[in-house]
Amino acid sequence: MKRILFFLIAFGLTVPFYYDAVAANDVYVYPAKGQSPQQMEKDKAECYRWAVGQTGFDPAAPPKPSPPPPQAQPQGGVISGALTGAALGAIGGAIAGDAGKGAAIGAATGGLFGGISRHRQERYQQEQYEQYRRQEAARFSHMKQQYDRAYRACMTGRGYTVN
Q1: pTM over 0.70
Q2: Secondary structure of residue 90 in the 3-state scheme
């Protein structure tokens, strides 16, 4: 659970910086037909509004990331595994004639398997979260690329060279 909380906090702190860094990656525009600086600023503003209208993406106000998938509390663990193992070991030990020894072996084995199970659950949740993070980054990147494409088309149509 601590790992999940750490990743949620780390993701919450890094995503806004990621979005700001990507949004700040502006294209370069050259006035190929001798447009004045005033005309170029006017065209940039109009193409910005047009590209936002075409794509629904505004690099000055990027969308908030979708909420992460819900994380279930991992079940089981060392203690519950040990208790279950002790109970089963006591039953097996009683049949063999030494319930205490059977309970001790069952507790140790159950605790071991309970810990392994919990670790797997936590690792699975961590992998799910990483997949979510990659999907969010890809979604943002796609929206930004669509905006840039529309902006470039507009500026190129007005006689500018755009990288």
Answers
A1: no
A2: helix
Q: Is 162 helix (H, G, I), strand (E, B) or coil?
A: strand
Amino acid at 73: Q
Domain count, the chain: 1
Give pairs for 82-86: CB < 8 Å, separation 24+.
82/107, 82/108, 82/110, 82/111, 82/114, 83/107, 83/110, 84/110, 84/114, 85/109, 85/110, 85/111, 85/113, 85/114, 86/110
Range of the domain at 130: 2-162
**Model pLDDT for residues 101-145, shown as the tens digit of each residue:** 666 666 666 666 666 677 777 788 888 888 888 988 999 999 999
| Residue 69 pLDDT exceeds 80 | no
What CA–CA distance (Å, rounded) separates 70 from 90?
A: 38
Instruction: Provide the H-helix boundaries in 24-98.
Output: 37-55, 78-96
